[in-house]
Amino acid sequence: MVPTGTNSEHTAHGATPASARAPASGRIPAQRGAPAAEPRPVSAPEHAPAEPRSRPTRPRPARRGRLRRAGESAYGLLLLGRHVVMALVVLVVLAAGVWTSWGTAQHAMLTKGKERGTLTVAACHDDWCTGPFTAGAAGADHPKVRIDATVTDGEGQRIPVVLKPGTHDAVRTGLPGLLHAWVPLGGALLLASVLLAGALRLHRSAWALGLAGVGVLGAAFVVL
Fold first, then answer.
1. Contact at 8 Å (CB) between 117 and 134?
2. Residues of the chain with pLDDT under 70
3. At what angle do helices 183-198 and 203-223 cross, to 10 degrees?
4. What does 142-174 look like in DSSP terms, one character per residue?
């Protein structure tokens, strides 16, 4: 028989108990040949509270001073006044062109009740040509009347004219006389187109007036 003290001493000094060999973490080492257990991933709770989203704060616009607002209002009034003044200038230019042209065009267009006949150009000076007037169906002959030199080709030409009532001034009739009468309006249209494009920035209207003015002046130049 083996004494009891011998086994207890062998156990105390020769081998370490299983509880003493176990690691402090409490995990039991896997046996040889057995697959190691995979660690389970820690998942977040299903109903985790959502973090509140912070809204971006917009910077507040700085308040404009009274002086700045007054300056902007004054500038707007000045700009509006400038446009109004330039529009009035354009209207005045066009009205002057129509008035100047109508002074001659009315006689070339409205010949009823006026002395109509033929003028034979006898002499030309700087701005005027003169010659005898031979009346047509109605009226009386005149030994000397005058006409604008720009509507004649020189001495010896016979042109159809109408006399202004109560004067010895003749106005050429027909298409050449009519286009020549509207030449001042053509010049006014060109000037108004420049004002519209430069001052008012109305380029389409400026192109329309400019082309109309060029058409009147070009047609008058061709027929005369």
1. yes
2. 1-65, 70-71
3. 160
4. EEEEEEEGGG--STT-EEEEEEPTTSSBEEE-H
Output DSSP code: residue 22.
Answer: S
Can you count the helices (H) and strands (E) in the chain? 6, 6
CATH 2.40.50 residue window(s) in the chain: 113-172
Neighbours of 183 (CB within 10 A): 22
- Give me 135's structure tokens: 């009346």
Instruction: Please report, as a single letter, which amino acid is at residue 186.
Output: G
Task: Give the C-alpha separation, 206 to 94, whole Å.
Answer: 13
The pLDDT value given to residue 12: 40
pLDDT of residue 153: 86
* Closest to 97 measured CA to CA, from 16, 212, 222: 212
Fold of 113-172: OB fold (Dihydrolipoamide Acetyltransferase, E2P) (2.40.50)
The predicted pLDDT at position 72 comes to: 72
Task: Give the chain's radius of gyration (CA, Å).
Answer: 55
